[in-house]
Amino acid sequence: MPEQPSDPRTVQLRRSSGLVPYEEAVADMEARVAAIHAGEALELVWLLEHPPLYTAGTSAQAEDLLAPDRFPVFKSGRGGQYTYHGPGQRVIYVMLDLNQHGQDLRAYVQNLEAWMIAALARLGVTGETRSDRIGIWVERNGDGLLPGEDKIGAIGVRVRRWITFHGAALNVDPNLDHFTGIVPCGVAQHGVTSLTSLGKDVAMTDVDSALKGEFESVFGVQLVEEP
How far from chain centre, in Å, is Cα 51? Predict the structure, then answer.
């Protein structure tokens, strides 16, 4: 029997340990989105890590894949261009029914950005958005680097029947050298950073707690741990 929703006012939270293969995660998302559409499952936020890989969004340009043989490359149905996933990065897959939260994709993406910024603030980091590019950005903190800004969070979403999937990724302590195999999200003139690089010694559980704590303030519903 399919799982029946128990409370439509809550969104379930799943945290996976270990590294979840990308294809397995996509298959699970596809199944969950179908179940949400059928009224057989609650909405879900899924926090996980992937093994090192690159994904190509629907706007990816071939010339932005600089090292095609470095890691596996997966075509993705999400919006955006090339991105990297790997250990030390918190991947955030969000499966919400926008029929219940407002059929406005731009507002949804803005909510994802606001959520990540609020969670970063809990961790002592000031994240910002930019009008000309998507994602979450931070000012460089010196260390001999030229003034500028770096990307700490990426966003790439897909919607089917107004139900979202894919989502966002926040750099906690990944190997930043792995980003050099691509032009991240098609933006070559800015760098990539992480919480560790910003001097924040936080565990993945701290990041998860910040995300859980700020979800309701942005989306208006509570995250409840999956049974």
Answer: 15
